[in-house]
Amino acid sequence: MLSCLVITLGLLACTSQAQLHSSASRAGVSFAPQDGGVSVPPKKVHNHRMYGMCPPQFQRVGTDCYSLVQQPSNWLEAHFFCKDKNANLAEPTKKADRKLRSYLQRQDSQTGAHDPIWIGATYDHHNNYWQWSVSGRNLTYDAFNQMDPTNPLDKNCGVYDPNLKYHWSARSCPDKLRFICQHKMPKVSEANRYKIYDRWNVTYPNALANEVVLEVVGGRGKDGRYQRLVVAEGSAEQMTIPGRRRAGTRRHPAKHPNDVNYRPKNHTHKRPGVSSTTPSTPAFYRSGIPSTAATQPRRPTTHPRLTQFDRKLQRQRERELRRQLRRKERLERRHKMLEKRLLSKAAEEKHHEQLQQHQQQSEPDALRQRNMEEQQRQEREHHEQQLQVEKQRRKQKQEQLREQEKQQRQQEQEHELEKQQRQQEQERELEKQQRQQEQEGEQERLKRKQVEDERQRVIDDEARQMREERLRKQREREAEERKVREEQLRKQKAEQDEIDRRNAEQRLANEKRLREEHEKRLLEAKSEQERILQEAHEAKIREEKAVEEALAEKERQRQEQIRRAQKEEEERQELEQFEKERLFQQREIQRLREEEARREQLTRQRQAEIEQREAEERRLAEEEDRVRKELVEAEKAHKRQQEYEIELAERERQQRQEAEKAAEAAKTPQSESLQQALKSANDDVAQQLEEKRRKYAERIAALSPEDQEKFIEMRKKRKQMREKQLMAREQTKLKRIQEAIRLHSIQ
């Protein structure tokens, strides 16, 4: 009884373990932590069992996981849908392509769908080859069905076409079709399963994953490690476990975003780490579904790496924090400035009160101070009046000088404008002559080309006629040869018929002679035995003759068949020759027609170019006339504006003179004395200037003639330099005005 109980418990344990490690069609694994997010790493168990993991809604096909999505989408939407699932559009290899086609056939036979299915192949029309979208590599293997080479492939993507037995085909990328996503199937040991749970829990929170149990083929090697080949449960398919990096080597293995064994190292960042943009989910259980994670202690859940969106949010938070700090500093500075202003205002009020108290205490001193300030103010006013008068006189002189300079500048501008107009007219004439010469040269070139084309056309027509004449003569010669051959064959046939007739007559005569001889021998036979022997001998002779005749008839028939086959072969060769000649003539005629059409098209293009050039010339002439008129109108408007400005300046000057005269008439005797003082001061200044000029003339006269000439040359050069600078400034201003006018006309 006890032994039966032990056996029953052993069977139950084996059954529960088999249920926990069921395949993708029977079991699922929840990614949520089962003890509030705190788990302990499992102990290493060295066994011959591993696990292939497929995400939710993905099925194992071969060595990868695939998900057929029935949602109609264009190629780009399908691509991003798969990227959101940490997968990519299917990129099948040769072996995987056969298995995937079988899988799609089974799925469509169950669902009844027959629409094409997007895969990850896109056509690069710049380099004219197909490539995978994610890796960017060229296709080393493709299962494309035979496609129409005349159909352009730009903006086309690859599909599985059910109408072509699920071979590959090309469709326009904006079409709305089904698609299939591919996800790498990590093959991990039981000790590394928690890594898969931690990673996929972000993308598929609280979802169930598909597992398949992998049995390691063979035992340990010489180095004590297990072999890398595994076999899936319920199939004979072998898979390879990804290799591990050995210590002391610099070779980096291939990285894949879905392979847990190739997870890169976590680099230290200066900014604080962010767990994830996905909110953490509470523990999730389903009591009815056995979970393989429930029997294993788990490690603490590690924070996933920063995604691009996490980094973007981190940068936004940092910018917002810096903005708030700057706002806070601004408010503090404003508060300090306000406090400082209030303190200074209070100090000013206090100082004002102290001054008022001091004035109340010393009233006589204030009166004396007020008298002194009044005297100083009067002196300042008198001095300011003198300065104002001097300033007005200087201002008048400066205005006169400015008016003179303005008039001189206007004259120079008018002269420069006239000079530029003449230059522009000359340039336009030269351009017009050049264009006319170019047009004449182009017309002459077109005429020469047209004459050459006409001459070439005549030569081609003559060559075509000669070719047709040669072909006609060849046909006539072949027809005569054919008639001669037919006549020879007819004569040979008649001769053969005559020979056959003679042979038949000779054979009949021989038969008759032999029959007569036989009858004669029969009559002459002495006994019955001799007659029988003679008859047997005659029968044998007749059989031999019959055999000979049959052989001769067979030979004749064989010769006849050979002659008939030779005749048919000759007729077939003649027909092939005729067909080749006919095709050659058709190609030649087609070529001549294409050449004729091409010449006509070139003639039409040249005619259109000539018309276009003439229209362009007319448009340019009209544009020149319009620009010339606009320039004349602008010059007239500029002159009117200048005259108006001169008139306004003259009126203002007269008004100022009248106001000055009135002010002089209304001056007090004190101002008259001031004027006298100013006059005497001006006389002194004039005398000083005259004395300076006299001394300057004496110094120049004291120089040698060569120095005087050098001095005069230097003065001339300075004057010319000033004039050139002035002209350059005026030209620059004029160019700006012309550019503005041109832009305005273009607008």
Automatic annotation (TrEMBL):
Residues 1-18 form the signal peptide. Residues 289-299, 668-679 have a biased composition (Polar residues). Residues 61-182 form the C-type lectin domain. Residues 308-323, 365-385, 397-521, 595-664 have a biased composition (Basic and acidic residues). Keywords: Disulfide bond, Signal. The keyword Disulfide bond applies. GO terms for biological process: tissue regeneration. The keyword Disulfide bond applies. Residues 239-333, 347-521, 544-575, 595-690 are annotated as: Disordered. Coiled coil: none annotated. Residues 243-255, 324-333 have a biased composition (Basic residues). It comes from the Eukaryota. This is GH16879.
